[in-house]
Design a protein that fits this description.
Blueprint lengths: L13 E2 L3 E5 L4 E5 L4 E2 L2 E2 L7 H15 L5 E2 L1 E3 L13 H4 L3 E4 L3 E2 L4 E6 L2 H10 L1 E2 L2 E2 L9 E7 L15 H8 L1 H24 L2 E13 L2 E5 L8 E5 L15 H7 L15 H19 L5
Parallel strand pairs: 6-15
Antiparallel strand pairs: 1-2, 2-3, 3-8, 4-5, 7-8, 9-14, 10-13, 10-14, 11-12, 14-15, 14-16
Helix pairs in contact: 1-7, 4-5, 6-7
Length: about 290
């Protein structure tokens, strides 16, 4: 498991919950570790090969969406990385990419195709999802007539907060707001259509966009188990919660513990880490049609 990248020659990385980002001058090196977070806490135990799944699945989707929107990827072949990175090739193989420097837009672009999670909780109380009025009588996990765009803030700490379309326009401008709304819905619809041919439902997902040379590109990760809710079409039963291809196994285990959901998090048993790893690998192989490298 790769929990810490430790590429000493490159200086200290900017660390996210899962990704370590190194500044290469005119580009960035993103390394996707096997770290896992739950309840906003990074756990001391990683999930084997999780970083490889997230990295390679994002690359799969970047290619599938290239005619809709450009992306930040410059290079993924470790053999073609700059010479100073050669000594780290084994550590970087399959879990890294060199990307363009973009100016991230300050919004998470969430698209929901099914009524689940926090959307279902709000709907039961108010008949809305992120303030969007929906028809009455919908059931948990029900497919919506049309996917809805429900952007949020990007919080450095704590939870993201919903943004109305008016708030999004105020934040980034009308033209930019309309563009990322259109792109988010278009990407989601294509992904949902492709995934359904593989027996997978994309319940919801989130995207991030950035600006390079005045143009909008998609950045970060795309349609991974960390950013999306994937369900088995064969097991789908509206009216109840669904089993997701993600880290729910970890959350379920943690809910059995006497833990207050604050740092430091507890270690995971090897069996829980291994089972979660298999779940990540499984969704990768289903969606891409090939084994993880």
């Amino acid at each position: 498991m790769l929990l810490e990248t430790g590429l000493a020659d490159l200086g200290a990385p900017r660390k996210g919950k899962v990704r370590d980002i190194y500044d290469l001058g005119d580009s960035l090196l993103i390394v996707v570790t096997d770290r896992v977070s739950a309840f906003d806490v990074v756990l001391p135990t990683g999930i084997p090969d999780k970083g490889k799944v997230l990295n390679q699945l994002s690359l799969f989707w970047f290619r599938k969406m290239a005619d809709i929107v450009g992306n930040h990827v410059l290079e993924t072949d470790v053999g073609r990385y700059p010479a100073p990175l050669a000594k780290y090739a084994d550590r970087l193989e399959g879990r890294s990419m060199i990307v363009k420097k973009a100016k991230p837009l300050p919004a998470e672009c969430v698209v929901r195709g099914y009524l689940a999670g926090s959307g279902w909780s709000e709907y039961r109380k108010k008949g809305t999802v992120c303030g969007i009025k929906l028809p009455g009588g919908l059931r948990e996990s029900q497919k919506l007539e049309e996917p809805i765009f429900t952007p949020t803030t990007k919080a450095d700490e704590g939870h993201d907060l919903p943004l109305s379309q008016d708030q999004l326009r105020d934040l980034i401008g009308t033209r930019q707001a309309e563009e990322i709304t259109r792109l988010s819905l278009e990407i989601y619809k294509r992904a949902a259509s492709l995934a359904e041919t593989r027996g997978i439902l994309v319940a919801d997902t989130k995207f991030e966009f950035g600006i390079v040379d005045g143009g909008t590109i998609i950045i970060d990760e795309v349609l991974t188990p960390d950013s999306s809710r994937f369900w088995s079409a064969g097991d789908y039963k509206p009216g109840q919660g669904q089993d997701s291809f993600d880290k729910q196994i970890v959350r379920d285990y943690l809910d059995t513990l006497d833990w207050d959901k604050t740092a430091p998090g507890p270690e995971l048993p090897p069996a829980i880490a291994a089972k979660t790893s298999q779940r990540y690998r499984e969704i990768y192989e289903i969606l891409t049609g090939g084994p993880l490298r």
